[in-house]
Protein backbone atom coordinates (compact mmCIF):
# COMPACT_ATOMS: atom_id res chain seq x y z
CA UNK A 1 0.00 0.00 0.00
CA UNK A 2 1.25 3.48 -0.88
CA UNK A 3 0.19 6.78 0.63
CA UNK A 4 0.88 9.61 -1.84
CA UNK A 5 0.09 13.25 -2.34
CA UNK A 6 0.85 16.59 -3.92
CA UNK A 7 0.28 20.15 -2.75
CA UNK A 8 0.31 22.71 -5.54
CA UNK A 9 0.27 26.31 -4.40
CA UNK A 10 1.72 29.55 -5.60
CA UNK A 11 1.37 33.30 -5.76
CA UNK A 12 -0.51 35.22 -8.43
CA UNK A 13 0.24 38.80 -9.39
CA UNK A 14 -1.91 40.78 -11.80
CA UNK A 15 -1.65 44.44 -12.74
CA UNK A 16 -4.34 46.71 -14.19
CA UNK A 17 -6.98 45.15 -11.96
CA UNK A 18 -10.18 46.96 -11.12
CA UNK A 19 -10.26 47.84 -7.41
CA UNK A 20 -12.75 49.77 -5.23
CA UNK A 21 -10.47 52.82 -5.50
CA UNK A 22 -9.91 52.56 -9.25
CA UNK A 23 -7.21 50.43 -10.82
CA UNK A 24 -4.26 48.76 -9.22
CA UNK A 25 -2.54 45.45 -8.85
CA UNK A 26 -3.46 42.22 -7.12
CA UNK A 27 -1.21 39.80 -5.28
CA UNK A 28 -2.84 36.67 -3.86
CA UNK A 29 -2.40 33.06 -2.85
CA UNK A 30 -3.19 30.66 -5.71
CA UNK A 31 -4.29 27.06 -5.20
CA UNK A 32 -3.74 24.33 -7.80
CA UNK A 33 -1.59 26.41 -10.14
CA UNK A 34 -0.41 23.51 -12.36
CA UNK A 35 -2.24 20.54 -10.82
CA UNK A 36 -4.88 20.01 -8.20
CA UNK A 37 -3.69 19.30 -4.66
CA UNK A 38 -4.39 15.71 -3.65
CA UNK A 39 -3.63 12.80 -1.37
CA UNK A 40 -4.42 9.17 -1.93
CA UNK A 41 -3.97 5.55 -1.07
CA UNK A 42 -3.19 2.98 -3.75
CA UNK A 43 -2.32 -0.62 -3.40
CA UNK A 44 -2.03 -4.11 -4.78
CA UNK A 45 -2.44 -7.52 -3.21
CA UNK A 46 -0.96 -10.60 -4.85
CA UNK A 47 -3.67 -13.26 -5.15
CA UNK A 48 -1.35 -15.83 -6.77
CA UNK A 49 -0.92 -17.19 -10.30
CA UNK A 50 -0.22 -13.70 -11.70
CA UNK A 51 -3.52 -12.25 -10.40
CA UNK A 52 -3.53 -9.11 -8.26
CA UNK A 53 -6.25 -7.08 -6.56
CA UNK A 54 -5.67 -3.35 -7.21
CA UNK A 55 -7.23 -0.13 -5.94
CA UNK A 56 -6.77 3.64 -5.83
CA UNK A 57 -8.58 6.13 -3.58
CA UNK A 58 -7.64 9.75 -4.32
CA UNK A 59 -8.89 12.88 -2.58
CA UNK A 60 -8.74 16.38 -4.02
CA UNK A 61 -8.60 19.41 -1.73
CA UNK A 62 -7.87 23.11 -1.57
CA UNK A 63 -4.49 23.89 -0.03
CA UNK A 64 -5.84 27.33 0.87
CA UNK A 65 -8.52 26.18 3.31
CA UNK A 66 -8.66 22.37 3.21
CA UNK A 67 -12.10 22.12 1.61
CA UNK A 68 -12.81 19.05 -0.48
CA UNK A 69 -12.66 19.34 -4.26
CA UNK A 70 -14.76 17.52 -6.87
CA UNK A 71 -18.08 18.60 -5.40
CA UNK A 72 -17.19 17.66 -1.84
CA UNK A 73 -16.64 13.95 -2.49
CA UNK A 74 -14.09 12.44 -0.07
CA UNK A 75 -12.37 10.50 -2.86
CA UNK A 76 -13.59 12.63 -5.76
CA UNK A 77 -10.50 12.38 -7.93
CA UNK A 78 -10.44 8.57 -8.14
CA UNK A 79 -12.12 5.72 -6.28
CA UNK A 80 -11.79 2.37 -8.00
CA UNK A 81 -11.03 -1.29 -7.39
CA UNK A 82 -10.05 -4.03 -9.80
CA UNK A 83 -8.15 -7.10 -10.80
CA UNK A 84 -4.94 -7.27 -12.82
CA UNK A 85 -3.80 -10.49 -14.50
CA UNK A 86 -0.23 -10.69 -15.77
CA UNK A 87 -0.24 -11.19 -19.55
CA UNK A 88 -3.99 -10.51 -19.85
CA UNK A 89 -4.76 -7.02 -18.55
CA UNK A 90 -6.77 -5.23 -15.90
CA UNK A 91 -10.46 -4.80 -15.13
CA UNK A 92 -11.36 -1.84 -12.92
CA UNK A 93 -14.66 -0.54 -11.54
CA UNK A 94 -15.57 2.83 -9.98
CA UNK A 95 -14.77 6.51 -10.50
CA UNK A 96 -11.73 6.58 -12.76
CA UNK A 97 -10.07 8.46 -15.56
CA UNK A 98 -11.21 8.09 -19.16
CA UNK A 99 -9.02 6.56 -21.85
CA UNK A 100 -8.37 9.97 -23.39
CA UNK A 101 -6.75 11.09 -20.15
CA UNK A 102 -4.81 7.81 -19.94
CA UNK A 103 -3.30 8.40 -23.40
CA UNK A 104 -2.62 12.15 -23.31
CA UNK A 105 -1.28 12.06 -19.73
CA UNK A 106 1.57 9.71 -20.68
CA UNK A 107 2.78 11.91 -23.54
CA UNK A 108 2.60 15.30 -21.82
CA UNK A 109 5.56 16.98 -20.15
CA UNK A 110 5.31 16.39 -16.42
CA UNK A 111 2.28 14.22 -17.13
CA UNK A 112 0.09 17.31 -17.40
CA UNK A 113 -0.86 19.34 -20.45
CA UNK A 114 -0.79 23.13 -20.70
CA UNK A 115 -4.37 22.89 -21.96
CA UNK A 116 -5.54 20.87 -18.97
CA UNK A 117 -8.70 18.92 -19.70
CA UNK A 118 -9.33 20.90 -22.89
CA UNK A 119 -6.75 18.73 -24.64
CA UNK A 120 -8.69 15.61 -23.67
CA UNK A 121 -11.75 16.31 -25.85
CA UNK A 122 -14.33 16.47 -23.07
CA UNK A 123 -17.94 15.57 -23.89
CA UNK A 124 -17.20 13.06 -26.62
CA UNK A 125 -18.39 9.48 -26.06
CA UNK A 126 -15.18 8.68 -24.20
CA UNK A 127 -15.74 11.47 -21.71
CA UNK A 128 -19.40 12.24 -21.15
CA UNK A 129 -18.76 14.93 -18.51
CA UNK A 130 -15.07 15.22 -17.58
CA UNK A 131 -11.81 13.32 -17.50
CA UNK A 132 -13.16 11.37 -14.48
CA UNK A 133 -16.11 9.07 -15.04
CA UNK A 134 -18.39 7.77 -12.29
CA UNK A 135 -19.77 4.22 -12.31
CA UNK A 136 -17.38 3.01 -14.98
CA UNK A 137 -16.14 -0.45 -15.87
CA UNK A 138 -12.85 -0.38 -17.75
CA UNK A 139 -10.77 -3.17 -19.29
CA UNK A 140 -7.22 -2.54 -20.53
CA UNK A 141 -5.40 -5.44 -22.14
CA UNK A 142 -1.76 -6.17 -21.59
CA UNK A 143 0.48 -5.19 -24.52
CA UNK A 144 0.69 -8.22 -26.77
CA UNK A 145 3.62 -7.39 -29.08
CA UNK A 146 1.82 -4.49 -30.68
CA UNK A 147 -1.61 -3.02 -30.10
CA UNK A 148 -3.40 -3.27 -26.80
CA UNK A 149 -7.19 -3.25 -26.47
CA UNK A 150 -9.15 -1.08 -24.11
CA UNK A 151 -12.87 -1.21 -23.53
CA UNK A 152 -14.99 0.83 -21.17
CA UNK A 153 -18.62 1.00 -20.15
CA UNK A 154 -19.75 4.22 -18.54
CA UNK A 155 -22.92 3.64 -16.56
CA UNK A 156 -24.29 7.13 -16.22
CA UNK A 157 -26.71 8.43 -13.61
CA UNK A 158 -29.28 9.20 -16.31
CA UNK A 159 -29.49 5.45 -17.16
CA UNK A 160 -27.82 6.15 -20.51
CA UNK A 161 -24.96 3.78 -21.18
CA UNK A 162 -21.97 4.54 -23.34
CA UNK A 163 -19.55 1.84 -24.42
CA UNK A 164 -16.34 2.61 -26.20
CA UNK A 165 -13.69 0.22 -27.47
CA UNK A 166 -10.26 1.53 -28.39
CA UNK A 167 -7.30 -0.22 -29.94
CA UNK A 168 -4.06 1.53 -29.05
CA UNK A 169 -0.64 0.78 -30.49
CA UNK A 170 1.95 1.65 -27.84
CA UNK A 171 4.68 1.89 -30.48
CA UNK A 172 3.05 4.33 -32.91
CA UNK A 173 0.53 6.00 -30.62
CA UNK A 174 -2.23 5.21 -33.15
CA UNK A 175 -5.71 4.95 -31.64
CA UNK A 176 -8.68 3.51 -33.47
CA UNK A 177 -12.26 3.43 -32.26
CA UNK A 178 -14.14 0.23 -33.00
Automatic annotation (TrEMBL):
Organism, by scientific name, is Caballeronia terrestris
**Subunit architecture:** Homotrimer.
Q: Which GO terms describe its molecular function?
A: porin activity
Query: Cross-referenced CDD domains, in alphabetical order?
Result: gram_neg_porins
Q: Does the keyword Transmembrane apply?
A: yes
Cellular component GO terms, alphabetical? cell outer membrane; pore complex
Keywords, A to Z?
Cell outer membrane, Ion transport, Membrane, Porin, Signal, Transmembrane, Transmembrane beta strand, Transport
Q: What GO biological process terms does the UniProt entry carry, in alphabetical order? A: monoatomic ion transport
What protein is this chain from? Porin
Superkingdom to which the source organism belongs? Bacteria
Q: Name one Pfam family in it.
A: Porin_4
Q: Which PANTHER family does the UniProt entry name for this protein?
A: MAJOR OUTER MEMBRANE PROTEIN P.IA, PROTEIN YDDL-RELATED
User: Where can this protein be found?
Assistant: Cell outer membrane
Main localization of the protein? membrane
Q: Which residues form the Porin domain?
A: 2-145
- Look up and give the membrane topology term: Multi-pass membrane protein
